[in-house]
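Box 3.1 — From sequence to structure: Uroporphyrinogen-III synthase
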Amino acid sequence: MKEKTVLLLKAAEDSSCDPYFEKLQEAGITSIIIPTLEFIYINDEILENCLLCPENFCGIIFTSPRTVQAVHRIFDTTGFDISKWQKKENYAVGEATSKLAASLLELDLLGEEAGSSEELCKVILSSADCEKFVEPFLFPCSQKSKDTVPKTLTESGLEVKKVICYKTECNSHLEESLEKLIAEKGIPDIIVFFSPSGVEFSNKIMKFLEKTKEPQCIAIGPTTEQAIKNAKMNLCKVAEKPNPDSVLKAVKSLL
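Predicted structure (token representation):
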């Protein structure tokens, strides 16, 4: 029986080891990664001014690894006092974002178990210290970020300082990489989408390529799930959490 092709459409890791690829490999499942996105950091000065004044905030909310990278870039160039931020109430969506913040910024993040921005807001609002959050939260995000966090928290009486710190663009080599994969292995059997942008950019290309079958799609998170539905692609599974174990479980269910 021919081995199924599992394609991971995600942003490239900054390290040489991708945890999702490795988790699937450990289970005997071969996968292929094609980076869908390129990131351009913006508004460095605005973010820097915020990070240099931790006394003006009650903490930071991270909703993606890229926002952690944006803060770390400022730390590398300015050397702002990270110890003052370490004493704050800092939150993150998902295991990958939390681990990266711990590694690069030595921050202990709350909310790691939350699989979405909606769930993270519930964690924040249920905190025993919620009534002490007088200053705003610093919320670095992408230009495509939905207003779920600012809207939900402000409606509950908390303040949020939103700073758009990066924008996403389609990987300039995406079309070439997809064409090469399809030429060598055919249309993938399973595609794991990690972001709505990944769905948008890859769908624009794949619908123009010759298709003999429709891949089974797995979504990471509710916004990516909705993007797949909007694109009328074959959504088969949604990973329970944005982590390698949940993706492995979803992939196994389709093999």
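Summary of the box: The radius of gyration is 19 Å.
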